[in-house]
Amino acid sequence: MTDFLFALAFWLAAPIWLALIAAPTRPLTARIAASPLTVLPILLVYTALAVPAFPELWTLVTAPDLDKLRDLVAVADGAGAIWAQVIAWDLLIGQWMFLEARRLRITPWVMSPLLFLTILLSPFGLLIFLALRAARIRRSAAADAWDPAGHPDPLQEPRPTADA
User: Fold this and answer.
1) Exposure string (b/e) for 105-142, b if CB count within 10 Å is 16 or more?
2) Is the distance from CB of 89 to CB of 62 less than 8 angstroms?
3) DSSP letter at 156?
4) For the segment 4-19, what is each residue's pLDDT rounded down to a tens digit?
5) pTM of the model
6) 158: Cα within 13 Å, side-chain hemisphere
7) Fewest CB atoms within 10 A around its CB: which of 1, 90, 117, 161?
8) Are 125 and 114 in contact (CB under 8 A)?
């Protein structure tokens, strides 16, 4: 049963990742990405795996220790629970990255490979995205602050004047 649940955690997340990567411009994809409920089935898998390993899990989280972590991952349910937790959090990170990229108008041609990297190695994917996001925000702020002709930005709300 543990092997099945271990695999199920990935397969529950895979369709959502596929939508984020392969169908980023579809309205349904944006609605899916906006929902934190996407991880609920994965968290149920986590619970099913964590309950049998709860004594080891509790020992680890109440007194973190590398040897206790080794003990937990030596138990199949413990390793499976950690895997399901990683899958759930990675998916939430990917959804946030997807939504932030849309907000910042980062092209899917950049985001799709970055989201794929995030599936495989989420800390690296997130780190690259955070750098890209910071650069995009900085560039946007600089563009808003500088207008060579002195004209207001047509994409922003008009600012009230002293006359109004």
Assistant:
1) ebebeebbebbeebbeebeebbebbeebbeebeeeeee
2) no
3) S
4) 999 999 999 999 999 9
5) 0.82
6) 4
7) 161
8) yes
